[in-house]
Amino acid sequence: MLLLFDIDGTLVRVPAALRACRRALKELYGVEDGDRGFDFSGATDLPAFRELARRCGSRGDDVDLLIARYLAHLEEEIAADPGICLPGAHRFTAACAADPRYRLALGTGNVQAGARAKLRAHGLDGYFPTGGFGDDAEQRADILRVAVGRAQEVYGQRFRRVIVIGDTPLDVAAARAVGAAVLAVATGRPSLAELEAAAPDGLLPDLSDTDRALALLADLAAAVKPWG
Known about the structure:
By secondary structure, the chain is α/β, with parallel strands linked by helices.
């Protein structure tokens, strides 16, 4: 059984990312509030940065430079304030990693360098030897497909059952698109009601009750249909 974890709003909350993004936008375009009104919830990095650059007057040919500047600032901002590991996230992740039934990987819209920086700040990076990232594809479903393929190479086995763990309706939709089950947690911007409306296979307010979360995950693992 392969577990694909989202990062932002699921495992951690890292305001340093927004500060780094604002610094990069100001540095390249001289714009103070280029992110105003933009909803990052569930977004993947490539289209998000492309849209932010467009709003700031870019012709669209400097997105790679914008992301590079963001990553440089991200390291500095995380050093100053790493944000928080969400309730129960570390304990739940560690328990999943220790369970022989599961293998862990990432399925995140973050570019890989940003994802690793956020996880390292909270001692979570080592649980995820591989994954799919925002610099692999623009659509979440495609990122999940990359994650499964890489996990099969890294772990040396074929995964027929996959569970996505995320915090937005977009995580639910992406999981549905690839035939994976999904456990949603309401620790991101979307409310519990919004997640419930998206009809995930399992739903929790957070991961603070480790026993409850693991029991629900085990129920999903027993019921999930073969992937792919």
